[in-house]
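Sequence only, no structure available. Ideas?
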Amino acid sequence: MEGKRAAVHDRWLQRTEAAYRRMFAGKSQGELVTLAQRERMAVMIGKELAAFLLEEHVALDPAVQPEKASSACCPKCGEAGIPGVQEGEELPERAVTTSVGEIELQRQRWCCPKCRIVFFSARRSAGSGDRRL
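Reply:
I predicted one. Tokens follow.
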């Protein structure tokens, strides 16, 4: 896990350096004259960086691919799901709209043969009102 976090950190440093250059270097200085133009650029860059952090943080979540099927229960009947994506196959990508815009994430897809539904696992912290991913 530490190797993955180090890779994310390296990508974060590259992103923030590129964001800084977009704001302060080159043609941006000539295009960013008014306060409104500067603010729009800063907010846009901030949202892009926030989306990057969200995507990367969610990608490191153990719920992306739980080790035990029992941790992914059918939302209708509560029975353990059957993995919809077998080992070695690419996990399905989902687009989720957040306050910083749309982000892409991957999650194991689960099937319930009893209810005949497909669902995604979600882990919620106690007392959390957050949306399930």
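The helical segments are 2-24, 28-31, 35-59.
Hope that gets you unstuck.
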